[in-house]
Design a protein that fits this description.
By secondary structure, the chain is of the alpha+beta class. Helix content is 31%, strand content 22%.
Length: 264
């Protein structure tokens, strides 16, 4: 599915392509030393900069949730950002995209550069109420796709994070430190009832395979249901490594890719 994360405004910072190249150079320079350069969850450095980012994220999430319910304020900020307020009754994903675009135009989003490993200001166990919140804090930039990727300067793509949205039934927990994740693509439930096809080793699926080959860690965000009702939240579960992958017949009789991940 096509990503819907809006393009960042020009605020004097590096362009996305230049930012990606800088990250890619760092990843390539770390090749062969990945496990040493990416700290385990229990070794995360909590610096003054990290705490400042953590506070900024708390304020951003509070503002995001405020705009979701205060449509008058959302329309006002949209006008200030040069965006015409849309008077249609947005619901579901639409209003989240709209709020995210406004926040990005205001320069409120954090961790806007895609990166490998932990992101500043977020610790393992942090909870998020909405899928869009993962995007605005830089934990998982894709609004809809379950696999987020980063393209390196050599053209190879790596997975930065995966998230369980429940749309593919694609996370199967084995233990608290291991999971099996189904690949993306060719799901008839998400493609208007089109005829099911075999998944291909492209896009996010290829990125996960490349991360396995290069021993690059992947952030994992799990969806967890609350005990008392049917509501759920997204929880950052830390860094995992892809240990193996294979393909097998899925729900619709077509081949799907499966990726085994183990926690660092």
């Amino acid at each position: 599915m096509v990503a819907v994360r809006p393009k960042p405004g020009n605020s004097g910072s590096l362009s996305r392509s230049k930012q990606a190249k800088q990250v890619a150079k760092k990843v390539l320079s770390d090749k062969g030393h990945s496990q040493a350069n990416f700290c385990a969850d229990k070794e995360m450095p909590y610096t003054a900069e990290w705490y400042a980012s953590h506070l900024e994220i708390k304020e951003l999430l509070s503002f995001y949730r405020k705009l979701l319910v205060n449509r008058k304020l959302l329309d006002q900020l949209s006008q200030e950002c040069g965006k015409s307020p849309d008077r249609r009754q947005y619901s579901g994903l639409g209003v989240h995209i709209r709020v995210a675009r406004v926040l990005e135009s205001l320069g409120k989003c954090v961790n806007t550069i895609k990166q490998i490993g932990h992101v500043s200001g977020i610790k393992v166990g942090d909870e998020f109420l909405w899928r869009g919140e993962l995007s605005i804090v830089g934990l998982h930039h894709e609004f809809q796709r379950g696999i987020d990727c980063l393209k390196l300067i050599n053209g190879k793509i790596m997975a930065t994070s995966i998230v369980d949205s429940g749309r593919y039934e694609n996370v199967v927990g084995i233990t608290s430190s291991k999971l099996v994740y189904s690949g993306e693509g060719e799901n008839p439930n998400l493609s208007g009832g089109k005829k099911p096809k075999d998944q291909k080793l492209v896009g996010g699926n290829l990125a996960l395979k490349n991360s396995m080959d290069e021993k690059i860690p992947v952030r994992v965000i799990r969806r967890r249901f609350n005990n008392n009702d049917c509501s759920y939240k997204f929880v950052y579960d830390g860094l995992y490594r892809v240990t193996e992958f294979w393909k097998e017949k899925g729900e619709f009789g077509k081949y799907v890719y499966k990726f085994s991940l183990r926690k660092y």
